[in-house]
Amino acid sequence: FDFSMPIYSRAPSRARALFSFDASLMRVRLGGEHDDEDEFEQLLSIRRGQIVDISHCKKEEELEWCFGFLPNGQSGWVPRSFLHVFEHCTIKLPERFVATGHIGSVSGLWCDAKMEQAITGSFDHTLRLLAPRKQEVQRILTLSSSIQSIAVCSERGLMAAVCPDSTICVVRLDTFEVAVKFSDPYRSVSSVGFGLQGALLMTGDTLGTVLVWALSSDVERVRLCARLPSHTAAVTCIAVSRDSTLAVSASADRNLHLWKLPGPGLSPAQASEFWRTHHSARCVLRGHRLGVTGCALSNDTALVLSCSQDASLKLWSSASGRPLATLRGHRAAVSSCCFSPSDTFVLSASSDKSLRVWLAADCSCLCVLWSYFESPPVCCRWADDGTTILAACEDGRILQWQV
Hints:
Structural class: mainly beta
Number of strands: 34
Largest sheet: 4 strands, antiparallel
Shape: globular
């Protein structure tokens, strides 16, 4: 995309839009159907970092802010009225290709705080260790079956991957080799989450049961602590808070369950006693019309985020379990969601081939990120650096946006 050239595009209203860029300024002019530049009316000029009063703009669209182009090719905040033009043109928001290689849909995505490493799991039976900055695949680990979900504990340098053949693998990140492999002999495992700095592992199966496992300090032994029958359909996602005090499980039965987790340093007898007294969920979150596909907890554990096949997201209070807001805008099922590191924003990926960034305070959609590729995003993650968004597509591609 050459930002030094004017770009002409046909808007749905049969008007023409002229986008011009120079070293420090972006101009958008809207006019009639003719190509004569004299007929274009300069609508707005935005200097980078400048706050502009847009009350004079004669546009009927809501004056919300979204990600748009800046002269250096990066994305920045512009009024949402421009998004109406962007959505119906061939212009796409700037993205960066990271890696490919998977021949199946990506089922899990993780990246470290410095964006030096990223990990993907796929239905093609492989885990891949990526170097996003170098745009290369560093290591590949092949498992016995397709990978349904992954979870990473960076504090202990561990990753867990679950497969539909009931296999659960714990992988060391430094060697990218399997440290311990175990299974639930009765059910197919569908989701996984880490807690207590890697000492506790939670998995969900296709029958709706949440299992709690304890990992030894040398990661060579695994002990089943509790089997928590809760959901009436497959568990699709498990999220654990950063302080390991709460966990949330999402299910195709349209509900979410909140779980209280034990404190660190408990003996096996104390842990068993804890799960006997906390055998049921602390509260059940009900409100989605179709199955819940993903969930997340805010860093302060005050909010629960969920996404569903009903094309909506919901914010819940973790204290009361009550729904606080519903985020609507996607036109198809939402497959993944997460909070930004500051809990200010919410990121969602949908089968409508877009990602959306929402403001958590008022649940307004700030921007829509479109992909160059036709394949929809299935996983999304907001990196801990606060400026990088990663998305994994159904065709195996990994994309990156700088915000």
